[in-house]
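JOB MANIFEST
job_type = single_chain_structure
chain_count = 1
residues = 104
[input]
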Amino acid sequence: MFEQVAGLLAEHERLQEELADPALHADAARAKRVNRRYAELSKIKAAHEHWKQLGDDLEAARELAKEDDAFAEEVPELEQQLADGQERVRRLLIPRDPDDARDV
């Protein structure tokens, strides 16, 4: 499901480099498009990184739960947070209507 995230993260990096180029800001319309796309991808990147961190936290909690019951109590909550994070990333990956950001 998240195969396309790698491509979007690469595009985010490319746009970040493009935004650092002063020549971009000479064309206001192009700069606006690049900034808007960068903002969209930044949300996806943040949600994806949070989801990955939750996965790492869950894995660590499961490992530590073998030795400490306090970590075993955290596992169900982390599993729910991971599922919620995955759903957030999935929703952000749904293609948006290009006219959503436009004025009426």
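[summary]
Residues 28-65 form the longest helix (38 residues).
DSSP finds three helices and no strands in the chain.
exit_status = 0
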